[in-house]
Structures are given as C-alpha cells and as structure tokens.
Amino acid sequence: MNRATDKLPLLFLGVVLAVMTALMWGPMRNETATVDETTFMGGGYAYFKTGSCRMAEENPLLAQMLIAAPMLALDVHVSGQAQALMESRAVSPVGWRWDVTFAPVGQLFPDGVNWYHDSVAEAQFFGKILVYDPANDAERLLFWSRFTQLLLTLATTVFVFFWARELTANAWAGLMAAVLWAFNPAALGYGHLAITEPGISLTYAVAIWWFTRTVASPRPRNAFILGALTALALQMKLLALILMPSYVALLGLWWLRERRIAPVKQLAKLTGLFLAGGWVMTMAIYFPHCAPPPPIDYGQARELRVPDWFTTFRPLLAPGEFAKAVTLKLLHSQVGQDAFLMGQWSKMGWWYYYPVVLWFKTPVPLILLTAVAAALLLRRVRSAPYAALVPWAATALYVLSALTSKIDIGVRHVMPIYPLLAVGAVDQLTRLDRKWRIGAWAGCAWLAAVAFSAYPDFLPYCNVFAGGTANGYREIIDSNYDWGQDGKRLKQWMADNHVDHIYLDFFGTQTAIEWYGIPNTRVDAQSAQQILQGYLVVSVSELMRPEWDWLRTQRQPVARIGYTLFVYRFP
To answer: Are 68 and 136 in contact (CB under 8 A)?
Structure first.
C-alpha cells in the first residue's frame, strides 16, 4: 500500500464527510423529535442529574448518556412534575400503555419505589415533558443531542473507508465503500437522529472487524479487546446480542476454510479473556451500579412480571441495571408490537418483514452493486480469503436473526448490515477489470444522485419497488416512513394557509405540537366522524389503520404536509 497514493482518496473522503454533514444538517434542524428521541434524551439527562438508571433502564445506558451529554452544557428547565418523575417521587401504576397516570410513590410503594418496578411509562413521559417544556428551547436541545449521533455516523464513514482499504490494499476501494454508506438514505435518515442506531452501526462493524483480526491472531490482548468492543456495541443497542451466535458461526467458518483452530486449552483461555473484557467494559459504564439485583420474594416477582430465570440467577447478574435492561427488552420482544406491511397489520410480525423492508428502503443502485458483488463472491467463494467472507457472512447471520423478531417496525433495526455490505461489496467490485470498475463508480454516482434527490426527506425514502417515496406508505410505515418528524412543517403549513385550528391524530410527540403552539383538538378515527367543519390532519401511520378506512375510501386529502401528514377539509 503506497501511502503517497492515499492522499487523493483521503482528500475525497473529506469531501464525502462534508457533503454528508451538509445533507444531514437541514433535517437535524427542521425535523420534529421522532417518537423515541425524547425518551433517550430524558433517560441520559436524568442519569447525569440523579445517578439513577430508572429513567434509562430499558435501553443501554451509554447510548443515552452520549445523546444527553450536550444538554449538560445547556440551560435546561425541569418542571416540578418532571423533577418528581426523575427523582422517583412519582410512578405510574400501569406499564406498556400511553394513557398513563402518575401517583406519589408512597401510594404504590410505601417503603420507596421497588427496584423491579418497570418505569418505561415514566421514562417516555418524562422525556417528552422535559424536552418540550415551555421554558426550554426544545429545538436547541434536540439539535445538539442529534449532533452527537451525527458524529458517530461520520465516524462510521471513516471506519468503513479504512476497513475496505485494509481488506483490498486499495485506498480508492476504501473511498467507494465510504460512498456506499454515506449516500445511503437510511444512513442519512437515521444517522442524524438522537437514537441508538448510529452507535450500533459503528460499533457492530468495529466488533466484526476486530473478530476477524482476533481469529487470525489469537493473542490474549486481542481476545480481551474483542470482549470490550462487544460490550461497547451492547451499550449502544441490545440488538448487538446477535454478535454472540455470529462469533460462533464465524469461528466455524474459519475452521472450514483454514482447517485449523486454537487448541481447546488456548480457546478456553481466550474465551475467558473475551468474557473478562466484556465484563470490565460493562462494569466501567455502569459504575457505581455494579451490584446484582436486590432480593425479591415470590409474590412480588409474580406481581411485577419478573421472569423465573431472573430470580434464580439473580446473584450472578451483575451489574443488575444492565441485566434489567436486557430482561425488559426481551419481555418487550415477546409481547410483540403493532406492525404494518403491504396493507396488512399484525401484532407478532412476519418472518419475512426485514427482507421485504430492505428491498423497499435500499436504493436501486445499492441493490444492483450488492447483487453484482454477491454474484462475484459466489463464483470465487472457494478461493476468497476468510477476511473477504466475514462481512458477507456477518450480514447473512444478522438478517437470519432478524427473521425471528416479533418487533417489526423499521429498517433501522437492521442498520448494522449496511456498513458490512459496503465493505464486502467493494472488496469484490474492485477486483473487476477497469471497465467494470468504472461501472461501479457510475453506480456510486447514481447513489449520490438518489441521496440528493431525497433531501431532506431521507427518513420516508422508498425506492421504485415500493412505488417511490410518495407512495411508500402503502407498503411500510412507522419508523420506516412516518415517525412524527413533520410537526414543524405542520405549523408552517397552517401559517401559509391561514388555518387557525385543526383536528389532529398525530403519530408523534404531542408535547411537540403543544410546544409549537399549534391550536388543535385531538381526535381518533371514531370521534373524527363527528367533524362538521374544519381541517382534519392525520399522520399516515395512523391513517393506514383499519379504523380509518372510512376516511381513506370516502375522501381525498386537500393537502399533504411533507410526506407524512394528510389534510382533509370538512364539509
């Protein structure tokens, strides 16, 4: 590898990073908080202020701390109700519901709030009233919390460049891989939000890359670092649990290719060091919350829905706060969540959901380049080096794991495959002759054109297979399309059209609607049938529900705000 020849690709990498930043900057400033963002912001902020994980217990702590860190340098007003929730002086008697009520903690827990109480309702509500407190500059808080995730997304671009360059010994290949990630509307759409996807997209790829190095050079230091990197990925998003079976499968692939593996004694030692690295990293993040969960009697465990395995292994589950986060996420995955796909609704999802969503949300040039690269790999799979197989195998293992998911609400849950595919595809494409390499660069230019044409609506982007972005809602919704991001545009539309009041069914943060001072009356599908005069605005994630069939079939919208808000006029 000639370092002198790296200068021009590195210069172009800087251009790619600048353009990527510019493309995300506008949406960062103008999109209303999406459904999950305020929860993560509030969870991290509450931890910094109280040292308690209670407002941040269903999701990894580190991700929420990174999101909320800029808020510490800003003037954040905390209302009395928010303060009571943050300090666990008020709790909700119900969980997993939106229409929650809160009561002084003594009414439910005379001796203080029970450690096992599921605070998901409190955390969601707390984040909303904290960020969109009338005394706060919510847009400023949101922008800077999003900025930390933009940096992680840019770091993924840099990492993809260096991994592809290392794999191919070609800096131009690294640049191509960076382009395939940087101009993917999914990376641009989710990469600027204050959510967990930017962090897992980076750390998952780093962990897979380091695993390749560890297998090739099974030294104690490498195994320990691998454990730490795996824990770091888990602290970004708990979907990184997929790494564990993936390592086993990738190790098996190594044995099939090389017909050698470390002796059992050495393998046991390396496994121990791997576990130690993960444990040390997790303990460091959760310090000083390093103790296992407190004891709980059988009756309380049943009342609070604590699994039997949790109480059985309780003394070993340290740190307890992390064990609780994993358990809550597993419980959530078991109950499922309302999901929509191609005109159908399901509580438990579809096994084919993520392949279909990837087909609809991935730009056509990226699909074509990936397909060509996959065909090339299949032709030379027997001779391909192990390091070239790893990104593809890791992608396949991730998607296979996703097939079992009962939470089918967005392509963002498979975001970690995009950096892997960028590296794996470029490794194959750059092995072609000059004419085909020019074709690959033409595909990159096409992808960049798609990104520019999608601006600023990266979040709802859909390709032609879904009918294009304008019609994509007929196939996929929720965080694939409408995540409550167009509240600010709603206010602008009302001002431009001199509309002083609306009836509203909003699939987003209602506190944001109130913060913007949008005069509205909340309605549902049933009460909306009583409207005699005025404007009705319905988020498309609500509009596609069966109870709104009467509106979709009987009336045509008079306007569309962004891609997600449909406006109807009565009479």
So the answer is: no
